[in-house]
Design brief:
Elements: E1 2-5, E2 17-20, H1 25-36, H2 39-44, E3 45-46, E4 49-50, E5 54-58, E6 61-63, E7 75-80
Parallel strand pairs: 1-7
Antiparallel strand pairs: 1-2, 3-4, 5-6, 5-7
Length: 86
């Protein structure tokens, strides 16, 4: 199963990494939502597309394609945009 690294800002106090099955990025997030609730999926996706200020990496390569292939041993990282300062 693919491993999703969940940043603290998007987490719900649970595990910071979770293994989820799926052949595409979208399937992985749908399967995660079915098992753990829609919070993470809703934070990353909007109307089936990855939100503008969310960066998703599959095995180190950035993608914004929900149909991007995911292997059994893929590592998925989610990096929300950060802002602030002066």
């Amino acid at each position: 199963m693919a491993t999703i690294k969940i940043p603290a800002v998007l987490g719900d106090g649970g595990a910071s990494t979770v293994e989820v099955a799926g052949a595409t990025l979208g399937e992985v997030f749908e399967n995660h939502a079915a098992e753990h609730g829609p919070g993470l999926r809703n934070s990353v996706f909007d109307d089936g597309d990855i939100k503008e200020f969310i960066n998703v990496y599959v095995d180190g390569s950035e993608t914004s394609d929900p149909d991007a292939p995911v292997d059994e041993d893929s590592r998925i990282r989610i990096i929300p945009a950060a802002s602030g300062g002066r």
